[in-house]
Automatic annotation (TrEMBL):
<feature type="domain" description="Potassium channel">
    <location>
        <begin position="84"/>
        <end position="153"/>
    </location>
</feature>
<keyword id="KW-0813">Transport</keyword>
<feature type="transmembrane region" description="Helical">
    <location>
        <begin position="54"/>
        <end position="83"/>
    </location>
</feature>
<keyword id="KW-0812">Transmembrane</keyword>
<keyword id="KW-0406">Ion transport</keyword>
<dbReference type="GO" id="GO:0034220">
    <property type="term" value="P:monoatomic ion transmembrane transport"/>
</dbReference>
<keyword id="KW-0407">Ion channel</keyword>
<feature type="transmembrane region" description="Helical">
    <location>
        <begin position="132"/>
        <end position="153"/>
    </location>
</feature>
<keyword id="KW-0472">Membrane</keyword>
<protein>
    <submittedName>
        <fullName>Two pore domain potassium channel family protein</fullName>
    </submittedName>
</protein>
<keyword id="KW-1133">Transmembrane helix</keyword>
<dbReference type="InterPro" id="IPR013099">
    <property type="entry name" value="K_chnl_dom"/>
</dbReference>
<dbReference type="Pfam" id="PF07885">
    <property type="entry name" value="Ion_trans_2"/>
</dbReference>
Length: 292
């Protein structure tokens, strides 16, 4: 029975590590627990029509919540591993009153101290197998800290690329290029560069799906609000006289269709054409409509 409880704790640890792996390092990055938490918090704020300040906190708070759940799963899992063997399989420092505490409390304390790599030493494993797995928990704790920092450093550059594209589209809309300006070599280069940026954002939504749950602020920095203008530019490019401009317009149209497919497949589930998907994207991010 003791080993069955320890195996249950080991399974809990593996569940947390699996979710961490699929969220951060798996090619499809489909973390079960993390995706569920972020989706639930996002839908909760949308359902109750929370203000922009509250919605803007969903992304950061979701990441904090997910990291806390990873840490809690690892700590509790390892505590369950220790619990059936506490206190007879552990050595206590002289004068310590830890042995007088409940076994579960001592197990949680030892797990927390170990995963935090504090190494206080007032409770030490006595049996050989416990002396092997206890340092392993410290390695997991160090990996969890490193993974959290890496996650933050990956998400924010993806957000920057998305917002840069939105601001660029807003500036283009305000400058309102004429048909002659767009139907030129410079126009072809412009549409081609926009297609490249759209592809980058599409990859970001694939690799860093958590970035979807970050609110972009004002309309000029929100891709949800500005993506419609990119579609309008693509249509103008496809109707141009110069073949290179038409080609660039086709590239931008294809990139936008690919982006819409990813958004619909992973987040929106409308099953409609790109225009309908982008409208749903704008609504989901608190925009009344996509900017034409």
């Amino acid at each position: 029975m003791e080993w069955l409880v320890s195996l249950l704790g080991g399974g809990l640890v593996m569940f947390g590590l699996r979710d961490l792996f699929h969220t951060l390092w798996h090619p499809t990055r489909h973390g079960g627990l993390s995706r569920l938490v972020m989706t639930a918090l996002w839908r909760l704020t949308r359902r109750f029509r929370a203000g922009r300040r509250v919605v803007g906190l969903v992304g950061p708070l979701s990441m904090v919540t997910v990291v806390a759940m990873w840490a809690g799963t690892v700590i509790i899992g390892w505590a369950v591993v220790y619990w059936p063997h506490m206190p007879e399989s552990f050595a206590f420092s002289p004068g310590s009153e830890a042995a007088q505490e409940p076994a579960l409390l001592d197990s949680l304390y030892l797990s927390l101290v170990t995963v935090a790599t504090l190494g206080l030493g007032d409770i030490a494993p006595g049996e050989a197998w416990l002396r092997l797995i206890s340092p392993l928990e410290a390695l997991v704790g160090f990996a969890l800290l490193t993974a959290t920092v890496s996650w933050v450093l990956e998400i924010y550059p993806a957000l920057t690329r998305r917002r840069v594209l939105a601001i660029r589209l807003a500036l283009l809309r305000d400058s309102d290029p004429t048909t002659a300006q767009l139907d030129s070599t410079a126009g072809a280069l412009l549409l081609d560069s926009l297609a490249t940026e759209v592809v980058r954002v599409r990859i970001d939504f694939t690799q860093y799906a958590e970035a979807y749950y970050f609110h972009d602020g004002e309309d000029h920095s929100s891709l949800a609000a500005m993506v419609g203008y990119a579609a309008a530019l693509a249509e103008r490019g496809q109707a141009a006289r110069r073949p290179e401009v038409r080609l660039a317009g086709d590239l931008l149209t294809g990139a936008l269709a690919d982006l819409a497919a990813i958004l619909d497949q992973r987040f929106l589930h409308t099953g409609g054409p790109p225009a309908e998907v982008f409208a749903a994207y704008a609504t989901d991010h608190g925009r009344d409509r996509v900017q034409p």
